[in-house]
Amino acid sequence: MKYWAVLLVAWLNSLLVYCATDKIVCYYGSWAYYRQGIGKVAPTDLNAKLCTHIIYTFVGLNEAAEVKLLDPWLDISLGGIKNTVALKQVNPNLKVLVAIGGWNQGGARFSIVAGSPSLRKRFAQNAVNFIKEYKFDGMDIDWEYPAGNGGLPQDKANFVLFLQELRSAFDQNKYILSAAVGGARARREESYDVPNLNKYLHLIHVMAYDLHGSWDGKTGANAPLYAGPGDNPDLNVDVIIQQWIQAGASPDKLILGMGFYGRSFTLANANNHGIGAQTLGPGIPGPITRASGSLSYTEICSNIKAGWTVVYDNKQQIPYAFQGNQWVGYDNIQSLEKKVDYAKTKGLGGVMVWSLDQDDIRNVCGGGSWTLLATINRKLRLTYLRYMIVMLDVAYSPPENNYLPFA
């Protein structure tokens, strides 16, 4: 292979991390620091080169429109915020945002602030001051949900005014404004004026998961790519994304959310373990996350390693696993590859993961460190220059050395 061609291939390889326009937005649940053993994940454990954006979760909002630390000991004394922001020293292209809200925050305080012109203005300035003080690159609004969870019907309109005020203040400081939004039709129609969200947000993180769970009374996939027989036609990733686009969202602003966890169930009959099987309630908590009805990917792959049966549903393009009366629907390498391909086909801005700390970070199950996140990177960030590199490498290598890089 000619020397200049070798250098060109090396240079193109070095650009792979930086040239892909698609985003990999990674939420980090800061409370993972408190987990025991292999489940403990500190900011210093994160791989800064596998994400384009990392979002530190969560800070809170009070009725006086102030940004409040929810765990000052973790966030400040233990260096949670400082060490997360410091990841930009490892990857200078990384953007680190802070998320405000979350399910536990509820909708009432957001509703109060968004409904008052003076409080909206005050919050915008407080948000700018907070971002500046802690050296973030922006803020992610995780209001779950306007007009729901303690909110008011007028939240849908007021959310637009809230974002308008923020965007004006953020643009003056070149900060990123994003939001995590509920995906399915009922939530979208109740909570979001999509064209105006599209106008004021840089990124729209669509939470296209939690589509089924123990609340259904029967087994179902956490985030099926496509609808299955007899399933609610609105509760799958494909329809959710298409509906958001039809409602007025720009595809390049939409970030497809994917879960690094599964929804688990206790079967009513251990011999009836397909999708749609009757259940008695949520699954048994895992040893790491200790949450009924939910298992991290590390917990799931550990169960599989211990003998759980895995079935891949080709219609919905998702796996599920079971043993005895325990059942879980989740995403694995194969299903995430399908979703990344889908995001690219639809021209979306990229993908989002909830959450970094639930991946198999330490190669417990033999799939490699950061099993799921590495899969996403391989599919999303390497393919754009792959063909050019392969062709150059083949063209300038001796016949006996022809091979396909990254195969």
Automatic annotation (TrEMBL):
Keyword terms, alphabetized: Disulfide bond, Glycosidase, Hydrolase, Signal
Coiled coil: none
InterPro entries (alphabetical): Chitinase_II/V-like_cat, Chitinase_insertion_sf, GH, Glyco_hydro18_cat, Glyco_hydro_18_chit_AS, Glycosyl_Hydrlase_18
Signal peptide residues on this chain, from the entry's feature table: 1-21
Stretches assigned to the GH18 domain: 22-383
Source species, domain of life: Eukaryota
PROSITE patterns (UniProt xref): GH18_1, GH18_2
Example of a GO MF term: chitin binding
Entry GO CC: extracellular region
One GO process term, biological-process aspect: chitin catabolic process
SUPFAM superfamilies cross-referenced by the UniProt entry: (Trans)glycosidases, Chitinase insertion domain
Protein family according to the UniProt entry: Belongs to the glycosyl hydrolase 18 family.
Protein name as catalogued: GH18 domain-containing protein
Organism listed in the record: Hermetia illucens
